[in-house]
Amino acid sequence: MMEASSAVKNDYNQYFVETGERPQNFIRDITAETKYNGYPKVKKLIEKKDELIRKRNHPPMFLKTDLKTFDLTTLGKFDVVLIDPPWEEYLTRVHSLVTEIEHEKLRPWSFDEISNLPIGEITDSPAFIFLWVGSESLDLGRALFRKWGFKRCEDIVWVKTNKNTKNPRLDYNLQYSQKTILQRVKEHCLVGSKGDVSRSSESPYIHANIDTDVIVEEEPPLGSTKKPTEIYEIIERFCLRRKRLELFGEDHNIRPGWLTVGTTLSSSDYDQRLYESWFEGPGAYPQITDFRGGREIGTTQEIESLRPKSPKKKEEDPQPNQGMQTGMMIENPMQGGFPPGFPAFQQTSYMATEDPYMNYLFQNK
User: Fold this and answer.
1) The model's pTM
2) How many Cβ atoms from other residues are within 10 Å of residue 230's Cβ?
């Protein structure tokens, strides 16, 4: 039986109530340098992917414009769009604790205003959308996907730490809301897909299962809507095509490999002719070794040997057994298969399922 002192010591939720320090502050090995400790092949895969992406990322471009009036369709079509709209909760959670300038930056858009963005028209097919929805707008995010012609395929969760907060107890009180039942210490980024993209068919557009759907990172100062840098890394390692657009971007969002568009940017350097020239032609790495040319990133033999693969589809059995319809059949010791009348529920004991990604991780420890 656990001693009382030990139970109190490990009660991170009670510690949060007493001090304001969040339980996730005590999760270990969450940095890019430590999260793959114990998995050397996975770590090597990440390093090789990032090295290739850096070679193929074009110089950053950014456009300061009013998204309510600017015609986004003039920018062409994109493979990935990252959006962090000014949701109402971004303003309400900081109360009156921000300056007038910050208040104006956080002024929320209505659902209709967000939905009127022509996302369906500025995305190619296939394409992906990554939509930050805070903690309260999950249903609105799904409705936006339907309006724009996307289907939700993932939900990435950002679990916020507050290790660097000078007074976490004060922060705890400031973010208290009478509308909530539990303390809000996370945000969601919905992932949507458009077009024919299948995980099981090894689509040439994606490298799946390299990253997880949880980000643990420090929360920015009160009033900031800055999101974790890791979201860019997840997107770039996942999608194998290079035309990436971020909407509602700020100066801190400007990044190689992206076109950043927003109202609060301090300046612009967008040159449409130059930008489009970076994607001309059909090439990819290793035929093209820098950012000039081709929509696809490309890959290497080493990356292909290291990354998780989709299980190959098995040929259909002309006389399938009853019971489970998925999984891998273990060889039956009876040469003639199951005898007549063999109970279907017992046939399932001869079936085994496997998770290729978990097997990959355990095999590469």
Assistant:
1) 0.81
2) 18
Q: Measured between alpha carbons, how far is residue 208 from residues 85, 87, 111, 130 in Å?
A: 26, 30, 31, 15
* Residue found by looking up tokens 């301090």 in the block: 266
The half-sphere exposure of 38 on its side-chain side, counting CA atoms within 13 A, is: 5
pLDDT, one tens digit per residue, over 289-330 is 999 999 999 999 999 999 988 766 665 555 544 443 444 333
Quote the tokens at residue 160. Answer: 């916020």
List the end-to-end C-alpha distance of the chain, in Å, as a whole number: 33
Tokens for 357?
């990604």
Residues 50-67: tens digit of each pLDDT: 999 999 999 999 999 999
Instruction: Tell which residue, 180, 232, 234, 182, has the closest CA to residue 207.
Output: 234
Tokens for 243, please give them: 């035309």
Q: Which residue in 74, 91, 211, 80 sits closest to 156, CA to CA?
A: 211
CA distance 222 to 204: 41
How many C-alpha atoms does 59 have within 13 Å on its Cβ side?
6
Contacts of 118 (CB under 8 A, 6+ apart): 72, 73
What SS3 state is found at 97? Answer: coil
Q: Are 274 and 288 a contacting pair, CB within 8 Å?
A: no
Distance, in Å, from the CA atom of 41 to the CA atom of 307, rounded to the nearest integer, reads 9
Six-digit token pair at 28?
A: 């270990």
